[in-house]
Each structure stands twice: as C-alpha cells, then as structure tokens.
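Final report, Chapter 2: Outcomes

The project's central promise was a pipeline that accepts a single protein chain and returns its three-dimensional structure in a standardized token representation, suitable for archiving and comparison. That pipeline is now operational. To close this chapter, we reproduce one record exactly as it appears in the project archive, with the input sequence first and the structure output second.
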Amino acid sequence: MMRTFHQRFSLASKIAVLLATSLAFYLFWNKMFIFGVIVAFAVVVMVERVSHSSYSFVEKEGEQWLVVNHGRFSKTKTIRIAEVLKLTPMKTTFGMSHYLLMLYGNNHLMSLQPADEQSFCKELQRRMKIVETK
C-alpha cells in the first residue's frame, strides 16, 4: 500500500518567496534584467520545490521504503524504513517553522516538513513495526 504526504508551505517559505519576488520586481523595474532573470528563476525553483515535494511510503518486493521527492529539479531520495533510527520534532531558531529531523543509515540526517506531522509519524511507526515483525 502506498501513502503520500505533501510538504507544508510554512510561513518562512511564504516570506522567502514574497521577498524574492519583490526583489525580482525591483530589479526589473530598475532595468537590471540579468539579475532580475536570475532572481526570477530562483523564485520559480523555490515555488516548484515547495509545491511538488512529497513523502511517499511504498512497499516494494516485501520491503518498506520512504521515497522523498523534492520536485522536478531535485533528485529523488529512497530510504529503507529498516534504516530509520530516529525521528525528532525540531523548531527553528526564532520558532517561525518546525520540522522533523530523521536520522537514518550511517548517521545521515534529513529534514522533513510533512503537512500532517502526526499522521506522518504514526504511519512511519506503523511501517517500522511491520519491518520488525518480519
């Protein structure tokens, strides 16, 4: 069975997109087209990454996997559920955003921002129990 969670569009992400869009508009307004195009491209990449990021739990060939996709411009990361060691809720410095910090494999870290963190944690724990019973 496959279960997919989408990334949360946090306040910090919204502010970053708004500021970058304002900067691109300012650069175009002041006839700095090359820099404006570069910033506009960065805005497109930021929006695409936030809107198309997903975390999917998949079962392939009897094994449980977490597939992390950060959009079309990024490489898809596939992690075996058996390699997940720890999942810790974290907050940023000023508390503007929160995320899940996952420790897996040989001390690798990955930050996750699912829209529904509680359901994501429950699904991960359920999949980890399935792996333990095999």
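Archive annotation: The chain has a mean pLDDT of 90.
This record, like all others produced under the grant, will remain available to the consortium after the project formally closes.
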